[in-house]
Structures are given as C-alpha cells and as structure tokens.
C-alpha cells in the first residue's frame, strides 16, 4: 500500500504534466543509491517534488526548495524518507572537516549534519519543518525509515501541527 492510499486522498490525477505535483506532495529523502524513492512510495513521474541530499537532512537549501514547492507548486504534504545503514549515521564530522581543511586550506562553512540515530533524526527533521516560518503547510509531515535490507518502509512519526484555517 502506498503513502497516498494511507492518506486516503482523492484520486484527482490530471494527464497534463504542468510541473505542479499532481499529488500535492513533496518528498525529502537521502541521496543513498540503494533507494528508489518513486518505487518506495509508489509514485509516478508528475506526482511529487523530490528533494534529496546526504542524509535527507532539513538544511536551509531543503527549506528553500520546500518553500518554493508549497508556495509556487501547490504542494501541501511532506514525506521524509530516511533509511537504515545511512552513511550519515555516526558520520565522523571532525575528521571529515580536518581532511577538507588539509585539502582546501580552510574548513567549510557548512556542517555535514550527520546524526546518531536515524529515527531521532526523522523526528528532528519534522521539528525543523514545524518551526520554520516560511512553510505554510505543516499539518501533514510524515516521517519514514526505509530498511535497505528488507525493502520495507516503516512509519516513524508525523507532525503535530494543525492546519491553519
Ligand atoms: Zn543515507
């Protein structure tokens, strides 16, 4: 069963691909090569904005994309997909920064944003979205962990924000 069956949304698919996600859905997922986000969420091309980075972390740039997605492309649902055996799990941030500093002569201004617990990071990601003032739809933020060994998708948490009138 797909995410959208769980949500019981109306099946209002249009055949016209106008660039606005037909399912009003934005996905934030890790860039991990083992994850086929469309297959994991039972999505077709045209149904979602898919934003990916190392860890599926809610960075400033992910907020930028989500804000454009909600304000310009009419999405209102956010689905987060983290996964087991993620490279950002227990990421050696200090050592990584040292290596970059040796190479470039300076440390990066950004953090690699690793985490110690994948489920806790899903909850932290939901919290970052809930606290962001620019996003206007926060009532339906759903967090999942994908198991790269079994191919199972496990629900972790959803936002606790009620939709504004
Ligand atoms: Zn990952």
Automatic annotation (TrEMBL):
User: Which of the seven top EC classes does this enzyme belong to?
Assistant: lyase
Mind listing the UniProt keywords for this protein, alphabetically?
A: Metal-binding, Zinc
Cite the Pfam families for this sequence.
Pro_CA
Q: Which cofactor does it need?
A: Zn(2+)
| Presence of the UniProt keyword Lipid biosynthesis in the record | no
Q: Which reaction(s) does its UniProt entry say it catalyses?
A: hydrogencarbonate + H(+) = CO2 + H2O
Superkingdom, according to UniProt?
Bacteria
Q: What is its EC number?
A: 4.2.1.1
Q: Which InterPro entries match?
A: Carbonic_anhydrase, Carbonic_anhydrase_sf
Checking PANTHER family in the record gives:
CARBON DISULFIDE HYDROLASE, CARBONIC ANHYDRASE
| Protein's job | Catalyzes the reversible hydration of carbon dioxide to form bicarbonate.
Question: Which family, according to the similarity comment?
Answer: Belongs to the beta-class carbonic anhydrase family.
Quote the protein name from its UniProt record. Answer: carbonic anhydrase
């Amino acid at each position: 069963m797909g995410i959208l069956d769980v949500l019981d949304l109306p099946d209002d698919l249009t055949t016209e691909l106008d660039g606005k996600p037909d399912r009003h859905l934005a996905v934030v997922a890790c860039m991990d090569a083992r994850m086929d986000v469309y297959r994991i969420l039972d999505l077709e091309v045209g149904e979602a904005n898919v934003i990916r980075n190392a860890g599926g972390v809610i960075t400033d740039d992910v907020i930028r994309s989500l804000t454009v997605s909600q304000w310009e492309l009419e999405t209102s649902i956010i689905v987060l997909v983290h996964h087991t055996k993620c490279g950002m799990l227990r990421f050696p941030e200090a050592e990584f920064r040292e290596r970059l500093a040796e190479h470039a002569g300076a440390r990066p201004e950004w953090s690699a944003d690793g985490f110690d617990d994948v489920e806790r990071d899903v909850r932290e990601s939901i919290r970052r979205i809930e606290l962001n003032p620019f996003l206007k739809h926060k009532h339906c933020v759903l967090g999942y962990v994908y198991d790269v060994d079994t191919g199972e998708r496990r629900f972790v948490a959803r936002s606790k924000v009620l939709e504004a009138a």
